[in-house]
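Changelog-linked ticket: nicotinamide-adenine-dinucleotide example.
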Amino acid sequence: MVNFLSSVMKKLIILTGAGVSAESGIITFREMGGLWDKYSIEEVASPQAWKKNPQLVLDFYNTRRKQLLDSQPNAAHRALVDLERKYEVHIVTQNVDDLHERAGSTKVLHLHGELMKVRSEKNEKLISTLNGWELKLGDKAEDGEQLRPHIVWFGEAVPMINNAAKLVKSADIMIIIGTSLSVYPAAGLLFEASKSCLKYYIDPIAETQFLPGIELISKKATEGVPHLVEQLLK
Ligand code: NAD
């Protein structure tokens, strides 16, 4: 029965970025620039940074994790869960937070990794969930190697990109939320959708972008998403 239902349900793909979590108190990428006066995000989120100053990298991600544990899903995360009543919903997120899962979304693909997970620095398949928020130098994976954040850093390959592109290609409806569409290859996913796919973009800056064929909704996520979800559930 479940398989039958999912084969007749329309496929709805949702691409989310830092903006969907902004109203949960998690700062966006751009705002991060001001947070660390001395370092740009590229300088703490790269393999070179990990090699040069692993403690600095750990401090950065420990701070992010602590902040995430104090944050809650917002009305936008929660509204997206309701869509699963009528559609086959897949969320493809650039976010490393777990707020979509905590809201109740069942199919979430993380393009850039997951903040609450760690992995061996020598084997990217040895992934585990961190207990708490703090990862320290000397914390080892099963293979005896140092654990690092399970994050796709600048300059690293994005292993989930092909799976994400496949999902977008098959979408009947696509909703893009809270992303400046400036980080590639994630931003390029938009162009994988078919011509017949209905597309919406919710972001306070939506109308400043030149995106023909996409309905631009210049609103914050907690306002724009519940409203669109209500329309799509009618
Ligand atoms: P970005 O910072 O480049 O863009 C954020 C977008 O969110 C902007 O377009 C902004 O207008 C919009 N925005 C701000 N407040 C909003 C709101 N209340 N509602 C809706 N939209 C709002 O972020 P990006 O495009 O996601 O790409 C940056 C990279 O930073 C990604 O790779 C992502 O992995 C990473 N990142 C993740 C998190 C997280 O996990 N929550 C947070 C910061 C950065």
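Closing comment: Example verified and attached. The CA atoms of residues 90 and 107 lie 5 Å apart. The beta strands are 11-16, 88-93, 108-110, 113-120, 127-129, 147-151, 173-177, 198-202, 215-217.
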